Automatic annotation (TrEMBL):
PANTHER family: TRNA-SPLICING ENDONUCLEASE SUBUNIT SEN2. This is tRNA-splicing endonuclease. It comes from Methanothrix harundinacea (strain 6Ac) (Methanosaeta harundinacea). SUPFAM superfamilies: tRNA-intron endonuclease catalytic domain-like, tRNA-intron endonuclease N-terminal domain-like. Residues 80-163, 258-344 form the tRNA intron endonuclease catalytic domain. GO terms for biological process: tRNA splicing, via endonucleolytic cleavage and ligation. Keywords: Endonuclease, Hydrolase, Lyase, Nuclease, tRNA processing. The lineage of its organism: Archaea, Methanobacteriati, Methanobacteriota, Stenosarchaea group, Methanomicrobia.
Length: 352
């Protein structure tokens, strides 16, 4: 014979249950938070238990069925319907889930509150909801500081869920490049290095540029980096030398995102990585840990896209970028400036 549901009272954004609930719900299933004399359930926990007949809920002496409670909860808590979908999904997969510093904290399979630490902090969003960069960066920092992983649960218009992990990455390469100098000319939107020997040395030694008939054609960000490092001397068509400042000024006229890309390109190269255009993959750069000559080019490990400090992520765009990166065996990384440093945020699919 089924047990009678435990009676709870809706009060604000919590459901309050008596002391009998502590043993049955908290100790056995890790639902709610014990308080003197009883148990507090969050709205998503209460909805989950109400739907399963484990509790009943009243407000002002009136019993609420699941529909009435759900409608009330959506009015009390913005985004409740998305969080409920994710909570229910994770619980039914066998995970213990509790409210956390983001939306939830999730324990590893076989673990539970009080016995094992949580593995993930979960941040729930709708696919239609634009997500500011800082709303991923800050939770990722908190998760790292607490030795957790950040799970981004994206709920689409049909209430299907796609899970991602967002985490800071410390990218490092293995290149040692000592390239000879040379004189190159700024043309319209690229730079040409004319000397065949210097061209071959730069391309073979550091995988810079694109060989064109014994000469080397370089992008603006590549050229800016080599000019700053003193590897290249760059002149205009009249033969007048260009300072790094003048070269950058002219490059901005051609490429709107030049400064942002140059900053990230410089940081990646200084990390001993090889950086090439990622245009064919819809990102700013494809990045290699090491390239040993043009005849033995491996798959690049990362796709890196530079974003400004106030960037807003649109989740369908993120989904396409991450899926494409995965399909070509790369990791999708977003680069941002933070103070005087460049930081990297990797976003990848998760299968809980």
């Amino acid at each position: 014979m089924a047990e009678d549901p435990i009676l709870g009272e809706l009060s604000g954004d919590k459901v309050l249950l008596g002391g009998a609930a502590t043993g049955e719900l908290y100790e056995q299933g890790s639902f709610g938070r014990p308080v003197p004399g009883g148990l507090h359930l969050s709205l998503v926990e209460a909805a989950y238990l109400l739907d399963r007949g484990r509790i009943s809920v009243r407000v002002g002496g009136e019993d609420l069925d699941f529909q009435s409670f759900f409608e009330a909860a959506t009015a009390l808590e913005a985004g409740f319907e998305f969080r409920y979908v994710v909570y229910k999904d994770l619980r039914e997969r066998g995970y213990y889930v509790q409210p956390g510093v983001t939306d939830f904290r999730v324990y590893p399979r076989g673990g539970k509150p009080g016995k094992t630490p949580a593995e993930f902090y979960v941040h729930v969003v709708s696919e239609r909801e634009p997500v500011p960069l800082k709303e991923l960066v800050e939770p990722a920092k908190i998760a790292r500081q607490m030795r957790k992983r950040l799970m981004l649960a994206v709920v689409d218009e049909e209430s299907d869920i796609t899970f991602y992990e967002a985490k800071d990455r410390d990218l490092k390469g293995e290149m040692e490049v000592e390239a000879p100098g040379g004189t190159a000319t700024l043309l319209e939107d690229r730079v040409m290095l004319w000397d065949p020997e210097a061209s071959e040395a730069l391309h073979e030694g550091g995988f810079y540029g694109k060989p064109v008939g014994g000469r080397l054609q370089l992008s603006l960000v590549e050229s800016a980096y080599l000019l700053e490092k003193g590897v290249l001397r760059i002149v205009d068509r009249s033969g007048a030398p260009l300072t790094p400042e003048e070269f950058s000024r002219r490059s901005r006229l051609v490429e709107e995102e030049f400064d942002m890309k140059r900053l990230v390109y410089r940081d990646l190269r200084d990390r001993r990585l090889v950086v090439k255009t990622g245009f064919k993959f819809g990102s700013h750069f494809r990045v290699y840990k090491r390239v040993e000559g043009s005849k033995k080019v491996p798959h690049s490990e990362y796709l890196v896209h530079s974003v400004p400090e106030g960037h807003i992520f649109h989740l369908p765009v993120v989904s396409r970028a991450v899926r494409l990166a995965h399909s070509v065996r790369k990791q999708m990384v977003f680069a941002r400036q933070e103070g005087d440093e460049v930081k990297y945020l990797e976003i990848r699919r998760l299968k809980p």
